[in-house]
Amino acid sequence: MNVLVINCGSSSLKYQLLNMQDESVLAIGLAERIGIEGSQLKHETLGKQKIVLQKPMPNHKEAIKIVLEVLTDKELGVIASLDEIQAVGHRVVHGGEKFASSVLITEEVIEAMEECIELAPLHNPPNIIGIRACQELMPNVPMVGVFDTAFHQTMPEYSYIYPLPYELYKELGIRKYGFHGTSHKYVSQRLGEITGQDIKKMKIVSCHLGNGASLAAIQNGQSMDTSMGLTPLEGLAMGTRSGNLDPAIITFLMEKKNLSIDEVNNLMNKESGVLGISGVSSDFRDIEDAVKQGNKRAQLALDKYYFIVRKYIGSYAAAMGGLDAVIFTAGLGENSPDARATICEGLEFLGIEIDPVKNNVRGKETLISKEGTKVQVYLIPTNEELMIARDTEIIVKDLTKA
Ligand code: AMP
C-alpha cells in the first residue's frame, strides 16, 4: 500500500509518499509560502533528483494539486497515476479529549476536529483545510487523522488536571493535553524494536528537543505525563517559547509594559526561550557558535535550557518511581552531542552515565550510555511521517477487511 502523508501548516505543506510494503520513502517535499507571493515547491524523489518549482499556490488545494501532478509526472514522478495512492494520512495537531487514537476521517470526525479549533486556533484550521482539499482532489481515497495529542490521552487525571477551579476544566476544557505525541510514541516503540525489550515493562523518559521541545514520561508503553500543556507553550524553554514561568509575570508585564493579549502572547511564544535570553538566535547551532566566541548570554541560555531538561528528567523518574531508559530525539537531541552530555551531567545518581565516545554521533540510532549502567540512554531519530503512515495503513486495511 502507498500512503501519502500530509502535514499542513498555515502557509506550508510537508508531504511524503511511502510504500508500506517495505516502509520506503518514494518522494518527499515541502510547499512553502502558500497564499503568499513567491510560493514554491521543493520536491525530492529518492534515488532520482531534487527539484524546486516556482509556481503560484494561492491556497492549499492548489498546492496539493501541484504535489499530485509532480508525483504522477512522467519524468519527475514516482507513480503512474493517482490510483497508486491507496490512503492519505493527515497530521492533526489538536484532538482534544475526543481522539485518543488515530481515526478514519468522516464528516463527523471533521466536525469534531472543528470543535477543537478553539484549543489550537493556529494549527487545526490549516490541518482541516488540507483534509478538505485532499478529499476534493482524491474523493475515493480513504483518509486518516493522526493527532499530536492522542498519545497523551492516557495521562491519569491527577497528571492532566491544573490546580484551577475544576469548573473551568468542565466548561472550557482547560487541562494538559500535550503535543509531539506521534514522536514520543514512535521513539518509545522504536526502543522496543531495537532492543527487543518489552516497553510495557519499562519506565522511559523521551526528550523531543527540537525548535519546539517536550519531554514525556512513558510507563507501561503509555504517556503518564508530558511537559507541554493546554498549548505547546508550557514546559521547557524552547527556541522562542518561554515554557514555564510564574503565571503572575503575565499580568505584571501587561500592566508595566501596557501590553495587549496578542502582544503578551507574541512575547511568550515568539520572543522568549533561548532567543530571548541569548539575544542571538532561536537556532541552537547559532547559540553554540556564539558560546564558542565567548558570548555570555548565549552560554546563559544554554545553561538555563539544559538545567530545565535535567530537572524534568529527574522529576519524571520520581513521577514513575524509577527509570530504565532516556531517549533523545528531534533536531537538537539527534544532532548535538554537547547538549546530550550536558543535560545528563549530574544525573549519575539516577544511573545515567553517557559514554563520550558513543555519544559522538549525529542522527543515527545509537546506545550512548556507558556499558553496564542502570539507565539505557539512546539517540533515536524521530520519524513522525512513518508513524502517521503506519497508523493510516492499519486503519485502512481494517476497512477493507470489514
Ligand atoms: P526540529 O524542530 O526538530 O527541526 O529541530 C530544530 C532545532 O534543532 C534547531 O534549533 C536547530 O538549531 C537544532 N539543530 C539541528 N541541527 C543541529 C546541530 N547539528 N547542532 C545543534 N543543534 C541543531
Tell me what you see in this structure.
- By secondary structure, the protein is an alpha/beta fold.
- The protein has 2 domains: 2-147, 2-Layer Sandwich (Nucleotidyltransferase, domain 5); 197-384, ATPase, nucleotide binding domain (Nucleotidyltransferase, domain 5), CATH 3.30.420.
- Helices cover 38% and strands 19% of the residues.
- An 8-stranded mixed beta sheet has the order 5-4-3-2-1-6-8-7, with helices on both faces. A 6-stranded mixed beta sheet has the order 11-10-9-12-14-13, sandwiched between helices.
- A hairpin with a 3-residue loop joins strand 9 and strand 10.
- The longest helix is centred in the last third of the chain and has 25 residues, at 296-320.
- 45% of the residues are buried.
